[in-house]
Amino acid sequence: MTGIIIYDGSCNLCNRTVRFIKKHDNHCLFSFAALQSVEGASLLATCGAGGLESGSVILIHEGRYYARSTAVLVIMKLLGGCWRIIYALKIIPEPVRNFFYRIVARNRFRWFGRTDAC
After folding, report:
1. What is the pLDDT of residues 52-75, one digit of tens each?
2. Cβ distance 19 to 31 under 8 Å?
3. Quick one: which of 34, 59, 66, 97 is 20 to 30 A from 90 by CA?
């Protein structure tokens, strides 16, 4: 296990993304925890990311945490193969990447729906 991905379990986009990662995670690198779960809340507090807004995906990897667009890019890099190419977007300054990330995060329920299950 390389990293733990903490995601919004009530978000259809987030749940689809988790299924995508599981499908392409050929080396079983990731485990997952919903933000709403006791485990997710505990992990956020432990890594010091407890103050992030609920629309943020968090990756805990090798003692560090990554949030928002940076988490997505590092996840793609760790998946390897052709997904690693997406990491090249790291050259875009983080505030610019996160601007677009936040647009999607704010609209994710309207665009993709919500689920009660986590």
Report:
1. 666 789 999 998 999 999 999 999
2. no
3. 34
Dist. CA 32–CA 71, nearest whole Å: 13
Question: Residue-wise over 82-104: b if at least 16 C-beta within 10 A, else e?
Answer: ebeeebeeeeeeeeebbeebeee
Distance of CA 43 to the CA centre of its chain: 14
Number of H helices, E strands in the chain: 4, 4
CA distance 40 to 87: 25
- 3-state SS assignment for residue 38: helix
Collapsing DSSP states into helix, strand and coil, what is residue 6? strand
**14-50 confidence digits (pLDDT tens):** 999 999 999 999 999 999 999 888 998 888 888 776 6
pTM of the model: 0.90
Q: Which tokens sit at 115?
A: 């689920």
